[in-house]
Amino acid sequence: MSTQRATPRSKDGNSDDRVHRERGRLRREEILLEAANQFSRRGLDTVSVEDVAKAVGCNKSLVYYYFGSKDGLRDAVMKKLLDITQEIWSELRSQTFAHWVRDTTEWPRNHSNIPWLRLTAREGLSDTGRAVLEEERARALGESTRVVVRAQGSGEVDSELDPELVALLILFLTMGPVTIPQLVRMITGDSPDSVRFHERYSAFIDTLVQRLAPGSAT
């Protein structure tokens, strides 16, 4: 009786499956990024599944296949941005407070293709008192407060300052130039994308960090 051996065809089949899965993963990521960009520009309520599908050149049934519904697509976008937020905190967790603030406030400039801050601002304009994935996102953002508390323990930040409000201030400083660029232009006369504004803003951030240290106001 002859024995049956694995054939090159089955091996090729496994390879084809891997290629198919990778293409599917990349397609799903493409849809997510396009949805995030459209949500950040036009708002969560305005954008339709058909709008996203048309922009990436696929049938809207593929969007439903991956995400189930528009709400599922929205939740997946917010989950993706939550993952990005957690990666940021992981990268910056061990830094000094000054380096943490500098890298956090410069993050939008170095990752301009990720619409996290614009999407967050859009979400805030239609806030209902309950954000998507609020508990998970609050835990991730809580890492910034822990950075401030640690800085207070090491003497980098005045211990009399409210650590949550210091963390919120840094977040506002990070979001401001991206989400309200018109105010930057009207007040400073500079575009928030310009080298001149970047240099001014970086110098201001450095000075502000020094002013947060104990005894700096005396």
Topology diagram in text:
Layout: H1 8-42, H2 49-56, H3 60-67, H4 70-92, H5 97-110, H6 116-125, H7 134-153, H8 163-179, H9 181-188, H10 195-211
Helix pairs in contact: 1-2, 1-4, 1-6, 2-3, 3-4, 4-7, 5-8, 5-10, 7-8
Question: Main traits of this protein?
Answer:
218 residues; mainly alpha; elongated; disordered N terminus
C-alpha end-to-end distance: 94 Å
Strand content: under 5%
Low-confidence stretches: 1-10
Radius of gyration: 23 Å
Mean pLDDT: 86
Proportion of residues in helical segments: over 70%
Explain the overall architecture.
With 218 residues, the protein is mainly alpha-helical. The protein is built from 10 helices and no strands. It has helices spanning 8-42, 49-56, 60-67, 70-92, 97-110, 116-125, 134-153, 163-179, 181-188, 195-211. The longest helix has 35 residues, at 8-42.
Short description:
This protein has 10 helices and no strands.
